[in-house]
Design goal:
It is built from one helix and 21 strands. It is mainly beta and about 270 residues long. It has one domain. The strands form five sheets. An eight-stranded antiparallel sheet has the order 6-5-4-3-2-1-15-16, with no helix packed on it. It has a six-stranded antiparallel sheet with strand order 8-7-11-12-13-14, covered by helices on one side. Strands 19-20-21 form a three-stranded antiparallel sheet, with no helix packed on it. β12 and β13 form a beta hairpin. The longest helix has 23 residues. The chain is globular and about 50 Å long. The N and C termini lie far apart (about 45 Å).
Length: about 270
């Protein structure tokens, strides 16, 4: 009995130490020069768009990074998309045509914390900061909550990155579901400017492909998930066969099949 109690105590202390180390890691900023992301739209690999950070701009006396976007098919030249800025461990963005900073990420959250979410028209979904109220879109108050379930650390391409696993409250207030994953300095498993998405009335499919600074990859899609991990270390490569991966209709990767409902595998819809 004493051995069991000692083992349980050691495991608890190890978990506390690991969490403390994760929380004390140096913050990795989101807004960095020459950083770029590629995101796949839908289930077809050739439908790709990207964001890149290129240069600074002054807004109300503060320095922000300029974000541009482009589409590969059809090829469209870069166009200005938003301005981004790190403030502490929070990431803010101002969409093109707006002068209102929106909270994209709060990497200072602790496990169990909840945050309200809203949307800014068709620009990007954001978190609600400092008592902000959500926008009303087509008469619908676009609001829900995210709850931080877990923070852990991944090691990939020689970097240590903090990973945040969150669940979203269904807009019908049924339950928390649909894991959403953020990686500090990278963004979400959907898109850097989509930290969450509401349950859609039609299919909404975004697939993060990779993030890089210059020509150096710092994160790829598999870093968001546990499939290829060993002792918390992710050993992933670019590309790979996605035919066995399941997604829900929001484009979120599923760790297990639902008891009933619709899911996507290999570009095809299946119903249970």
């Amino acid at each position: 009995m004493k051995r069991i109690q000692l083992f349980a105590l050691l495991m608890a202390l190890n978990g506390m130490a690991t969490q403390a180390q994760t929380e004390q890691m140096e913050y990795r900023p989101f807004a960095q020069d020459d950083k770029s992301w590629e995101i796949r739209i839908g289930v077809f690999k050739e439908n790709v768009f990207g964001h890149c950070i290129d240069g600074d701009t002054l807004i109300s006396g503060e320095t922000w990074k300029k974000v541009y976007t482009y589409f590969e098919v059809p090829l469209i030249d870069y166009s200005y998309y938003a301005a981004v800025r790190d403030v502490g461990k929070k990431v803010y963005a101002i969409a093109k045509g707006s002068n209102r900073p929106r909270l994209l990420y709060d990497f200072g959250m602790k496990e169990g914390d909840m945050v309200r979410c809203g949307a800014e028209g068709n620009a990007f979904y954001s978190l609600l900061d400092k008592g902000e109220q959500p926008d009303t879109i087509f008469g619908f108050k676009c609001e829900t909550y995210l709850r931080l379930e877990r923070i852990d650390t991944i090691e990939t391409r020689g970097l240590k990155l903090r990973r945040f696993t969150l669940s979203m409250l269904d807009v019908f207030k049924e339950e928390f579901l649909n894991d959403i994953v953020w990686v500090e300095g990278v963004g979400s498993c959907l898109s850097p400017f989509a930290p969450w998405v509401p349950r859609p009335s039609r299919d909404r499919l975004f697939f993060f492909k990779h993030c890089q600074i210059g020509n150096t990859y710092i994160s790829v899609e598999d870093d968001f998930y546990d499939d290829n991990e060993t002792n918390g270390t992710s050993n992933t490569t670019l590309g790979g066969d996605e035919s066995g991966i399941n997604y829900n209709l929001q484009g979120l990767r599923m760790t297990s099949l639902p008891p009933k409902g619709v899911y996507i595998r290999g570009g095809k819809k299946y119903a249970k």
